[in-house]
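Morning run. Coffee first, then this:
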Amino acid sequence: MTIIKSGRIVIRGSSQQAALDTTLMFRPDQIVFGGGVVSEDFLKKVRREFKKLLNNYVDVGNVDEYITIPLAQHNGSATIGDFALALKAATN
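And here it is:
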């Protein structure tokens, strides 16, 4: 659950727990958090708590590279995906 208090983001378990569960069940090469509310400050908190929960149980390499945001700026990944779906629908 993420709570916003006076402009601060307070993380209470769900994002870093989701990253931990995903890591332990599926062992992905990378976890990408996206969406309009995800920022680098948010990810710093997620990474810090993720490291505590993981407790070096498995090696994920550099956590800053393992848990990231999309490469496209300003939630552009969603726009690119929308165009790709529109193109697919138009050509089928």
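The mean pLDDT is 82. Good start to the day.
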